[in-house]
Amino acid sequence: MSVASTLLAVEGLTKSYGGIHAVRGVSFSLRSGEILALIGPNGAGKSTCFDMLNGQNRPDSGHVRLLGEETTGKKPREIWRLGVGRTFQITATFATMTVRENVQVALVSHGRQLFNLWSSAPNYDRSEAGRLLELVGMGGYADRPCGELAYGDLKRLELAVALANQPKLLLMDEPTAGMAPRERVELMRLTAQIAREKSIGVLFTEHDMDVVFEHADRIIVLNRGTLIAEGSPAEVRSNPQVQAVYLGEGLLYEAGHREGASA
Length: 263
Ligand SMILES: Nc1ncnc2c1ncn2[C@@H]1O[C@H](COP(=O)(O)OP(=O)(O)OP(=O)(O)O)[C@@H](O)[C@H]1O
Ligand SMILES: [Mg+2]
Fold this sequence. Notes:
Blueprint lengths: L5 E12 L2 E12 L3 E5 L6 H8 L7 E6 L2 E2 L5 H6 L2 E3 L12 H16 L6 H15 L15 H13 L5 E5 L7 H18 L2 E5 L3 H7 L2 E6 L2 E6 L1 H5 L2 H9 L5 H5 L5
Helix pairs in contact: 3-4, 3-5, 4-5, 5-6, 6-7
The structure holds adenosine-5'-triphosphate and magnesium ion (MG).
């Protein structure tokens, strides 16, 4: 992979808690517009990886680079400004505001760094908010208070809020947790479609293997802090080591069923 096409480069990422090696020498890369799934059993180190990528947690060693720029050790806010978005953080935070106002707040927050002297920002934000809401299929909900939204609609709003920052990379740690299976597939389909259109790289983790296999371009597999496999959905699904890990954990995922494994 050429340096030019690499959006995110992770090298030797390591984090221990006392005697627990939460993440050990993890390296991978991600291109713009690519949908990469990070999977692994409970406690594999997925969230620890995410938190080191978005600045919430400092690695013991290793490097994270975004478009060639070192982001290791930067604060979450600085990393956000460089174009790394996290979805699904606003649940219930702005419940009394309307759907449109939530997106406008995000746009103002993003705009402040770009056009801090631009006095017409609120009008721009209003129409831009409407455009983002249309994009995620929430145009008809713009004037509703957020507190009234169904869970799945809130998730789509959260995607619009993340997009307001014009991210280059979206980090999504279990974005569909708590959603019904059909809604999960739909939310990831929407996310993947928008990401490909806008050339946004997406790193996501997800326990629902249907969602992973349907939407990921590539999958990396963590087990006990170490990457044990990387490849296309078909390659990962048929990888004996991956199957052993999931079956060993008693997690009879679709992957196992589809390969004909029996409990
Ligand atoms: N702050 C912490 N202090 C001590 N141990 C931690 C801390 N955070 C994570 N760990 C440990 O590190 C390991 C990896 O945890 P992590 O949350 O990254 O796993 P995960 O893959 O996200 O799991 P899940 O699928 O359950 O979300 C686990 O053994 C966990 O107990
Ligand atoms: Mg986790």
